[in-house]
Amino acid sequence: MADTKKSPSRKLGMGLLYIVLGIIAVFQIYPLVWLFFFSLKGNSEIFGRSPFALPEDWLFENYVRVWVDGNISQYFFNSVFITATSVILTVILASFVTFAITRMKWKLSGPVLLLFMVGYMIPIHSTLVPLFQFYRELNLIDNPLSIILAYTAYNMPLTIMILMGFYRTLPREIEEAAVMDGCSIHRMFFQIILPMTKPIMSTTIIINMIYNWNEFVFVNTFISSDKYKTLTVGIQNFIGQYLTDWGAIGATLMISIIPILLAFFFLSNRIVEGIAAGSVKG
Amino acid sequence: MDKVMSNKKVIALYVLPSLILLAGLVYIPIILTGYYGLMDWNGIGAMTFIGLDNYIELLSDDTFWYSARNSFFLAFFSTAALIIYLAVSLVLSAKIKGRETLRKIYLIPMLLSSVAIAQLWIKIYDPNNGMLNSLLTTLGVDSPPAWLAQRETVLIAIFIAIVWQYAGFYIIIYSAALKGIPASLIEAAEIDGATPLQIAYKIKVPLISGVIKTTIVLAIVGSLKYFDLIYVMTGGGPNGASEVIASYMYKQAFGINNFGYGSAIGFALLVLALLTTFIIQKLTASKNDNIQY
Fold first, then answer.
1. Nearest to A106 among B6, B112, B113 (CB)
2. CB contact, 8 Å: A253 with chain B?
3. Does B188 touch chain A (CB under 8 A)?
């Protein structure tokens, strides 16, 4: 209604708004563009010319150099392995729990759900020393299993929270029909319910992927050998050794964020949905 | 039907593995933190029970209070920044062209690791070759500060990186809530002659007050837990100027093997986080909340 009577001052106001929104977009994006540019520069260019200049000759060899010589490929594949394993474990276990809590009938379902949600509030630094001690007693220090189990436990509350909204919308008739047909509860879960939750599962998968890929404290605390370190901790060590080699640092950082940027490019709607579901309903 | 859906064995099979995992890695450790806080323990040798000594020492530990001060500084400004995020979300809830794309662009930094963000901002703040000081010099600023190396600027510099990281996260949350407001409500107000500003302030904001409350808790508790970014960017320096509770805890426990004292700090962090959440819930409790019950 109001749109039909656009006064000049209103138009000016809208113009200003667009400029402000544009400036924020530049503030959010430009540092990454700048990172991309300096990842392609050599030191003479970085220290000798304006930081805003485009790279003169695009040194993609920076990427090759850190990938091959800098152990970055090792860290990269460790990240892939740990992230993938934890995501699968988390989403499967969380699906079991969500199904039992939202679809099955038992007295303690409310309190048990609350118990899971409490996990969401715990600051990890308050559990780090006992966790370290626990893993040491189990001989799991410097073992990727310690990281995979920790990621699974600490991402479980959020994953359940995101799954729950969807599970609650499934019609009861599905289960009734399945029971009438003499379907066992496990078959019902695996062959009927789980396939129906594919959209929300993919949301939780991408959200878990991002969190695990980026995690730092657990790996930094529980893993000491290079052969098990993930990218976040690996690049931190790597940069410590190449403090003044900006091109190498830039290339390393780019390698660590490219998978996330790719995921974002193809799955941004799912990511937005996951973030909204995880915090609004909490 | 009911018989199948309340099969106790199946429920146990589905729920117990996860519950045991969380008990072992979350619930029991959280209790043990408070217990280890009662010990004199270097992480390797035997523990010696020393009662409340660690906690008493904590109360008079200037470094702890300074890092707590820094944590609350970040919490306060992170909460204040919510107003900006809310304003942007309100603008984006109007009929703006390309608003979906803008929201997504704003979100990108949030998806990157804090380590990568910290390393990137170290470069941005580099006194000689960084983006920021080059820009400031071009604009005619004579001797711009060495942001991360000076006591006066280090917290502000970290805070700006935090805003960069989290702006999109909060904008997505607010936008999701704003989308839930029925269009008919807004149209009715427009017919009554309400201006966009009035609609935003008098209708939209009150309707999403529950979500605003959630974000305040997220911002404050999130700030109290802040670690990765600061640990990588400054390591708490220069000379402790940007130490926060979590980084101080980490240094005590894993830096100088003061596991008992580190546990006490970890426990204090938990108490502060829970206490703050509780206080905010009380402070922001409104009549609307009670009606729902």
1. B6
2. yes
3. no
Nearest to B88 by CA among A157, A81, A21: A21
* Residue partners of B87: CB distance under 8 A and separation at least 6: none
**Would you write out chain A's pLDDT as a tens digit for each of its 282 residues?**
444 456 788 788 888 889 999 999 999 999 999 999 999 988 878 787 788 888 888 888 889 988 988 789 999 999 999 999 999 999 999 999 999 999 998 999 999 999 998 888 888 999 999 999 999 999 999 999 999 999 999 999 999 999 998 999 999 888 888 888 888 899 999 999 999 999 999 999 999 999 999 999 999 999 999 899 999 999 888 888 877 788 899 999 999 999 999 999 999 999 998 888 876 543
- Mutate which: B1, B10, B16, B18, vs A, most A CBs within 10 A: B18
d(CA B25, CA A49) in angstroms, rounded, equals 51
Dihedral over Cα of B190, B87, A162, A28: its sign: positive
Looking at A104-225, list the stretches that DSSP marks H as alpha helix, in order from N- to C-terminal side. Answer: 109-118, 128-137, 144-169, 172-180, 185-187, 194-196, 198-214, 217-222
Distance, in Å, from the CA atom of A179 to the CA atom of B48, rounded to the nearest integer, reads 59
Task: Respond yes or no on whether the N-terminal peptide bond of residue B196 is cis (omega within 30° of 0).
Answer: no
Dist CA A60 CA B106 (whole Å) = 28
Nearest to B91 among A17, A132, A149 (CB): A17
Please check whether residue B226 touches A, CB under 8 A. no
Instruction: Report the distance separating Cα A200 and Cα A213, nearest Å.
Output: 20
Q: Could you say which DSSP state residue A54 is in? A: P
Partner residue facing B114 (CB), from A133, A216, A272? A216
- Any idea what DSSP says for residue A128? H
CA distance B85 to chain A (A): 11
Question: How far is Cα A117 from Cα A101, in angstroms, rounded to an integer?
Answer: 12
Residues whose CB falls within 8 Å of the CB of residue A201, separated by 6 or more in sequence, listed in order: A91, A95, A163, A194
Phi, psi angles (nearest 5°) of residue B212: -60, -40
CB contact under 8 A, A232 and B115: yes
Given an 8 Å threshold on Cβ–Cβ distance, is B15 in contact with A94? Answer: no
How far B60 CA sits from the closest chain A CA (Å)? Answer: 20
